[in-house]
Amino acid sequence: MDLDQLNQTIAKIEADVAASLTDLTAVDAVRGLDTSVLGKKGTLGSLISGIKDYPPDQRGQVGQTINAAKGRVKELINQRLAGLQSAADAAEASSAGAYDPTLPGLRLPMGSVHPVTAVQWEIERIFERLGFTVESGPEMETEYNNFEALNIPATHPARDMQDTFWVKNGMVLRTHTSPVQHRSMKKFGAPLRVIVPGRCFRYETIDASHENTFHQVEGLMIDRDISIPNLIAMSQTLLTEVMQREVKLRVRPGFFPFVEPGLEIDMNCQICDGKGCPTCKKSGWIEILPCGMVHPNVLTAGGIDPEEYTGFAFGLGLTRLAMMKFGIRDIRVLNAGDLRALVPPERLGGPILS
Ligand code: DAH
């Protein structure tokens, strides 16, 4: 086409763009003109490729003409976009204060839980998957449930006045969660799978690793043919899942009147990774799981026939486990009511939030 025709074509394209812009109210549609008009294959943009068809002495002028037109169209598009934006702003401003049910809600700050609670919940989930139920018992117990029913005779050192808080009514603040073993046997009989998280009390001088108030989780599994390998397998599963890493276990003989044989299961110290630190008293090991096979006297006291059933029991140091898991070096932090000791929500993770 000659120059006149070119100018007419351009004028028509510009007129079309101007006309369509007044109708377009969507930002995206307006932006679309960038491609359909100005783009390489657009109505205006594509004219550039025709430059080579003009005599060499006209090519410069043709190019300028087309580019000038592109500049004007670009300007029109930008003006329209600006107009749409200010209209949108005005609409928003006029509806400010109006109730908009589609707005996302405000994010409230998230609460958190005590480290002991966090680990307790985790343990409950783990054992629930293994078919255990979660039981509880009173913090003030009878002397019988706390001691005799557990094969702890009156002469046993654990009944020393030094260790036990005696209540004026002749009862005790339970020194361990083990009395709930007896209560559960009486309540459910055999077979039986329970865990009992709970608070315990000892007449102790408080320091970095001793408290007069602490938490344990008692565990009890009674059935036909339960033996020590079941106990060790359960311990490995439990401690690996709570620490969320492979842990090493060490099994030693231990003595507790309510189990025979009695065992001490130790875990490699999670604070120093077994190298030796004040928390593990430089041994690299933490005593975490005293346990054993339930003593026949305890089964009998609970109304279960020791000829027919065997079982294992353990008394997990829940407070100590929480300290290990969260790297808390001083036990006193846990009962101090200091909110900074709570577990930040992002550290709860895993099973706790599910
Ligand atoms: N009740 C013991 C304590 O507080 C811990 C314990 C040891 C519990 C062995 C058990 C067990 O069930 O089998 O020291």
How would you describe this structure to a colleague?
There is one protein chain. The protein is of the alpha+beta class and 354 residues long. The protein has 2 domains: 3-96; 115-347, Bira Bifunctional Protein, Domain 2 (BirA Bifunctional Protein, domain 2), CATH 3.30.930. It is built from 11 helices and 9 strands. It has helices spanning 3-23, 27-38, 56-95, 115-129, 143-146, 179-188, 228-243, 296-301, 318-326, 345-348, 350-353, and strands at residues 133-134, 140-141, 172-173, 192-201, 213-223, 249-254, 259-268, 285-294, 310-317. It has a 7-stranded mixed beta sheet with strand order 1-4-5-9-8-7-6, with helices on both faces. A two-stranded antiparallel ribbon has the order 2-3. A hairpin with a 4-residue loop joins β6 and β7. α2 packs antiparallel against α3. The radius of gyration is 39 Å and the shape is rod-shaped. The two termini are 72 Å apart. The model is unreliable at 350-354 (pLDDT under 50).
Indicate the structural class.
alpha+beta
Neighbour order of strands in the largest sheet: 1-4-5-9-8-7-6
Task: Give the total of domains.
Answer: 2
Top CATH class of the largest domain: Alpha Beta
Element-level helix/strand string: HHHHEEHEHEEHEEEHEHHH
Query: What is the number of strand segments?
Result: 9
Number of helices: 11
Mean pLDDT over all positions: 89
Work out the radius of gyration. Answer: 39 Å
- Secondary structure: helix percent: 25-40%
Distinct compounds present: 3,4-dihydroxyphenylalanine
What does the main sheet amount to?
7 strands, mixed
CATH-assigned homologous superfamily of the largest domain: Bira Bifunctional Protein, Domain 2
What is the CATH fold-level name of the largest domain? BirA Bifunctional Protein, domain 2
Please tell me the CATH architecture of the largest domain by its name: 2-Layer Sandwich
